[in-house]
Specification:
Layout (H helix, E strand, L loop, with lengths): L1 E6 L2 E4 L4 E9 L6 E7 L6 E6 L6 E3 L7 E6 L4 E6 L8 E8 L15 E2 L3 E6 L1
Parallel strand pairs: 2-11
Antiparallel strand pairs: 1-3, 3-8, 4-5, 4-9, 5-6, 7-8, 9-10, 9-11
């Protein structure tokens, strides 16, 4: 089993940048495809980005394409989400998640993921 801990959230002005990190412990992360999800107040959790086990494939929800970049460093057991040109609507709690199915691809569906971190708050101000 893997445990996930997110960090890097905070308060940033619109147009600014943040980099989120998701540190994994337990089994090594290259066993898992990984995803980032977010949940804004009063809204359902939604996918943001996902990456395959060795980083060769990535996917993004349309609203963040061209602004966010997901990456991973399996030697450090860490997955990152670089967020640029942040908008007010990016304000949410951001969660990373691990897909323990052994898939070599990635999924943007939260139902594919079976391990979740506790989340990190991202607040974008005007």
């Amino acid at each position: 089993q893997v445990q996930l801990v997110e960090s890097g959230g905070g308060l940033v002005q619109a147009g600014g940048s943040l980099r989120l990190s998701c540190a994994a412990s337990g089994r090594t992360t290259n066993t898992y495809a990984m995803g980032w999800f977010r949940q804004a107040p009063g809204k359902e959790r939604e996918s943001v980005a996902a990456i395959s086990r060795y980083g060769g494939r990535t996917g993004y929800v349309d609203s963040v394409k061209g602004r966010f970049t997901i990456s991973r460093d399996n030697a450090k057991n860490t997955v990152y989400l670089q967020m640029n040109s942040l908008k007010l609507e990016d304000t949410a709690i951001y969660y990373c998640a691990a897909d323990g199915s052994g898939s070599y691809s990635y999924s943007l569906s939260e139902h594919q993921y079976d391990t979740w971190g506790q989340g990190t708050q991202v607040t974008v101000s005007s």
